[in-house]
Amino acid sequence: MNNYVIGEKINLLFYTGGAVASANAKKLARNIEKHPEIIKNYTAHSQGSLILANSLRILEREGKTHLFEGKKINMNGSPASMKFMKNFAEKYGIEFNFKVNKGDPVTYLGVNKSNTTNEKHTGKGNDATKGYNKYQEFNKDTGKYEVSIGSKKQKSEKKVKYTKGDIHLINNVKIKKVN
Q: For residue 122, what is the DSSP state?
């Protein structure tokens, strides 16, 4: 047996296509049914992506795919098959993006190939090249998500303008009122 076949068999233990869904997947499916806007721009990580994938399959089996129209889903570090999810998204008009870091053992379960320059499943400290983060941007030239330090600096350097009467809060503690 090759690695792909082994990976697909392992994947079946975790990703059931909605056939044997967890209580969390069922609960999420019901929430999406009531409030489809929650998946307008939804990002799921690791186990959360399995829950999301199974909840979408539940809704598909129930014939409620109209809820998927115009939605955007991002999956990071997923044990689900990204090949399957990409095809599923295309079938139902979902904008779908995913990130698979190098050396992330969780993604091996879905037989997913790396599409980032980052490493590992989670990061520690301030190293933006470890784990998944919002600074990973898609580079059309390389076909990979790469950390864009420029965007990190630009985002952190945005100045917030305060007007008279504004109250500054840090960790929900009042620190200064603008006069």
A: S
Give residue 60's domain range: 3-177
Q: Of residues 41 and 166, which shows the higher confidence score?
A: 41
For residues 107 and 163, the model is more confident at 107
Gyration radius of the chain over CA positions: 19
Q: What is the pLDDT of residue 134?
A: 85
Provide the Cα torsion 109, 110, 112, 118; round to 10°. Answer: -60
Q: What's the structural domain count of the chain?
A: 1
Return the half-sphere exposure (C-beta side, CA atoms, 13 A cut-off) of residue 72. 4
pTM given for the model:
0.71
Cα separation, 94 vs 105, whole angstroms: 27
What is the average per-residue pLDDT within 28-52?
Answer: 94
Q: Return the closest-CA partner of residue 100 out of 80, 115, 89.
A: 115
Q: Which residues of 12-28 are buried (b: 16+ CB within 10 A; e: fewer)?
A: eebbbbbeebeeebeeb
- CA 58 vs. chain centroid, Å, equals 19
